[in-house]
Amino acid sequence: DGGITQSPKYLFRKEGQNVTLSCEQNLNHDAMYWYRQDPGQGLRLIYYSQIVNDFQKGDIAEGYSVSREKKESFPLTVTSAQKNPTAFYLCASSRGGATEAFFGQGTRLTVV
Amino acid sequence: QKEVEQNSGPLSVPEGAIASLNCTYSDRGSQSFFWYRQYSGKSPELIMFIYSNGDKEDGRFTAQLNKASQYVSLLIRDSQPSDSATYLCAAQAPMDTGRRALTFGSGTRLQVQP
After folding, report:
1. Per residue in B10-20, pLDDT tens?
2. Which of A50, B18, B56, B101 has the greatest number of C-beta atoms within 10 Å?
């Protein structure tokens, strides 16, 4: 089955620790995205990549980093510089020229 | 920053009624608009998208776009309790901006009462 796989589903981070969220897609989509969702809020764009080896900052990139070494993969690292990382993180992908985005099942990150 | 605005709700409708969800956007150059449904604790699912002024129907759902008024709506006919969810409106900037990522509203929570 084609789709977007995020792992882990739940993640706990200690203060001052970096953690990496995985996102893999087998839809052959060129573009991939990371969004953050806080309770009762909409989705805010962290980073996006429209092609391999290229990515751009979204609206709330501070404290996050990404890489896009393979078309299928777009991991997100939440660094210790992100002061309030507890949130629901959503990865999405879309075909390059087309528009609709499809989402993975999300990773819920909690700081302990 | 370009914005997409939605009433947070909750919007409560009886089973079988028409639910009307509304959205406005600030970037007049936005070209494509999307409606996603999100159940509590789950990821968003695409319902439908619309590019052109007017109506677009898909089963019980109708999306309406009025670019002059910068207004998008979603109508759900014969609402069912299973339609109870948060509905997210999203807009996409024109291709010449280079930004294809969607800008989302905060969502409207719909409650369909049995």
Report:
1. 999 999 999 99
2. B101
